[in-house]
Amino acid sequence: MDFTGKVAIVTGAGQGVGKGIALALSSYNANIALLGRTLSKVQAVADEININGGSAIAIECDVKDVSAIQYAIDATVNKFSSIDFLVNNAQEVPLGNLLHVDDQAFENGWMSGPLATFRFMKLCHPYLKGSGKIINLASSSALRPDSEGYGAYASVKEATRALSRTAAVEWGPDNILVNCIMPLAKSTGMEWWMNERPDEANAFVQTIPLGRVGDCHDDIGEAVCHLFSDGMSYITGSTIMLDGGQAFLR
Hints:
Elements: E1 7-11, H1 16-27, E2 31-36, H2 39-51, E3 55-60, H3 66-80, E4 85-88, H4 103-128, E5 133-137, H5 151-171, E6 177-183, H6 188-196, H7 198-205, H8 216-228, E7 239-242
Parallel strand pairs: 1-2, 1-4, 2-3, 4-5, 5-6, 6-7
Helix pairs in contact: 1-8, 3-4, 4-5, 6-7
């Protein structure tokens, strides 16, 4: 894989899965626009990439704000002249039983997830047309038989999957590939949970056939790079599990 000359936007790139994807793409010579709500976090990742010979810019972006999305896209094009890859990773997570999730938390989940994904895809479409590729992050939470506490989160993630499938169908003639991934990785939140509740976490790991939680770079970022590679140019409209075999997609 060689992404020399390619330009990628990665949202939520300051930590966890977003950071892992950005670092992996950079290792194959892609130019990276790192977007995040906290500028210091994405700037630290950009500095790491640039120090190691890559090319990255950090852009402060609250994905719930359409004007911030437009600014980030314009800044990316002004710097790198094009957009080839779009990774919609950012997501505020509304967790809790339905009676306890308030409207604001649900609205934030919706605006940062499917609505932001919808806006990014549409605004990037003119640049992606011809050979662009999009990966949107879904979640296996919607596949859980024990969905207690995950309903609001699962619903916004499934909305993202529905939008992705439709974009793949409608934009196929534009040669834009759109896929979803469902990652299970040792993100910042996952690491906190595993440290705070080791017994619960150990039981959870036992449900993963491969017996481990994925690495944000080696397992998720590398897989995204493969999906963006030329050898994967006949895959679109799909949801791909990156979870060590845990979830079962019906």
